[in-house]
Design a protein that fits this description.
The chain has 160 residues and is mainly α. It has a domain of 92 residues: Four Helix Bundle (Hemerythrin (Met), subunit A). 71% of the residues lie in helices and 0% in strands. It is built from six helices and no strands. The protein is extended. The chain starts with 7 loop residues before the first helix and ends with a helix. About 4% of the residues have low confidence.
Length: 160
């Protein structure tokens, strides 16, 4: 009688196999629905044009570009904190039990002012960084940057 095989482990094996197949199917569906794009680092020069991105493009100019970045870094940090503070204050006004339209308008104006100050300082850093490059390096930067296109125009007149 001990020659008879036990049925318990084979049932567990089948259940485990079915669960694994279901899990693989769910993972596959998730990947297909997410677009399954490979995660690759952005090419140098494809993003913001600042001292740090220029250092990645031209490591030989690291000394000059780092000096420019160090000059602007404290002011940019303070302006970024001011931007975040202005946004926090706007949310506090919005979250208040009684809504004050004038106070909310002032907080939105403060956000615009803080953003403009930050972007102005960023533009100054960019101008100084690009000016520190040689003409050949500037031409290389211009070739690597994405060119503006009229995709917005095509989207505006697209049939829905």
């Amino acid at each position: 009688m001990s020659d008879m095989p036990r049925r318990g482990p084979s049932v567990l094996l089948i259940v485990s196999l079915c669960l694994n197949l279901a899990l693989i199917g769910l993972i596959g569906i998730g990947l297909v629905r997410s677009g399954f794009r490979s995660f690759e680092p952005r090419p140098a020069g494809g993003g913001a044009l600042n001292a740090q991105s220029l250092v990645r493009m031209f490591p030989a100019e690291k000394g000059k570009l780092d000096t420019i970045a160090q000059i602007h870094r404290p002011k940019l940090r303070a302006l970024r904190q001011a931007r975040n503070q202005a946004r926090a204050e706007a949310f506090q006004v919005l979250d208040a039990p009684t809504f004050d339209a004038d106070a909310f308008a002032k907080s939105l104006a403060a956000i615009q002012t803080a953003d403009a100050a930050f972007e102005t300082e960023q533009a100054k850093e960019t101008v100084e960084s690009v000016a520190a490059l040689t003409p050949a390096e500037r031409q290389s930067v211009a070739q690597k940057l994405p060119k503006p296109n009229k995709a917005w125009l095509r989207r505006a007149f697209r049939r829905r």
